[in-house]
Write a structure and sequence with these properties.
The chain is of the alpha+beta class. It has one domain: Ribosomal protein L28/L24 (Ribosomal Protein L24e, Chain: T). 37% of the residues lie in helices and 25% in strands. β1 and β2 form a beta hairpin. The mean pLDDT is 89.
């Protein structure tokens, strides 16, 4: 399994480990990946994925998985997340609009 975030596309970077005597040796900077299960409100189901800790914070900041995916660029997403994004787009287009509660409608009319 590749060490790549499924939502942001963040992957390993290459750099140098520099000793006190300034000898530089190659090393890899790995992303902080977490196995998480997030809930999709539009699809009414949970989705397991492997994302970076930074992406998890971004998902929470944007208001959930659906909002994050709808706003994300297609180039960053993995193939699996692209399919999920299309499913969410279809579900949100065909979703009926829920009417307001009667108590709220009376308060708005007054």
């Amino acid at each position: 399994m590749s060490r790549r975030c499924e939502l942001t596309g963040k992957n390993a970077q290459v750099g140098h480990l520099v000793s006190h005597s300034q000898i530089k040796t190659k090393r890899r900077f790995q992303p902080n990946l977490c196995d998480v299960t997030l809930m999709s409100d539009a699809l009414k189901r949970s989705v397991r994925m492997r994302i970076s800790a930074h992406a998890l914070r971004s998902v929470e900041h944007r208001g959930g998985l659906d909002a994050f995916l709808l706003k994300a660029k297609n180039e960053q997403l993995s193939d699996r997340m692209l399919r999920l994004k299309r499913e969410i787009q279809k579900a949100t287009k065909t979703a009926p609009v829920e009417p307001a509660a009667p108590a709220e409608a009376e308060a708005a009319a007054s």
